[in-house]
UniProtKB/TrEMBL annotation:
Superkingdom, taxonomy of origin: Bacteria
Any one GO molecular-function label of the UniProt entry: protein dimerization activity
InterPro entries associated with the record: HLH_DNA-bd_sf, Spo0E-like, Spo0E-like_sf
GO biological process entries: regulation of sporulation
Protein's name according to its UniProt entry: Spo0E like sporulation regulatory protein
Taxonomy of the source species: Bacteria, Bacillati, Bacillota, Bacilli, Bacillales
Length: 54
């Protein structure tokens, strides 16, 4: 699975978090889709922290 997804802003972060929770409820916590969403959230959060810290 090789995706490059760029999200900006808290609204997008919340949308991905919601997708992750839905996928976890449907497929289980260790499913690759849930892991993918988790990594995307980590990347988005890190980008937000970097931009806010200058």
């Amino acid at each position: 699975m090789n995706f490059k997804v760029v999200y900006e802003g808290e609204e997008d972060l919340e949308q991905v978090r919601s997708k992750m929770v839905d996928a976890a409820n449907e497929y289980g916590m260790q499913h690759p889709l849930v892991m993918y969403y988790s990594r995307q959230i980590d990347k988005m959060h890190t980008a937000q922290l970097k931009s806010s810290c200058g």
